[in-house]
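Encode chain A's predicted structure.
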Amino acid sequence: MGLFDFLKTKKNTASIAKERLRIIVAQERTSRGAPDYLPLLQRELLEVIRKYVSVDVDAVKVDLVKDGEHDVLDISVALPEGRPATA
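Encoded structure for chain A:
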């Protein structure tokens, strides 16, 4: 019975690896179809945000997401914790 348990574990590992590969392929397809202006837009947004808040380069993420017939610009900004509240 222990031998069969080992084979089941291998099968689960293979399915996990297959799922990870699907995610990587999906990300590659998304980035290939992305417009050329997205990296420039990301840099410019970072410059503007840095005028007001100190953030890392990786704090700004810009992606183009398909929503049915429409392309949606998804912008995510990770702000540092402990920033002062504005009135």
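The first strand starts at residue 60 and ends at 67.
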